[in-house]
Amino acid sequence: MQSRIVGAFGRGITGVGPGPTELDLLLFAKLAVAERRLKRGVGRAKVLWPCVGAPAPSNGAAPPDRGERA
Description:
Elements: H1 2-14, H2 22-44
């Protein structure tokens, strides 16, 4: 979508075609806002892979819940 909009700008500047439509500009703005929010959210996320501190099951079974007696 972004390349389509940039191409429309280029065609409009060089005079070989129409520039971007109002819908193109609206979509470009919405994409930019969504991309910014996504980058901000990913920057704040604290993902640990593999889970640090989680006991690895030795026999393939799930570890018991905390507080549960075996």
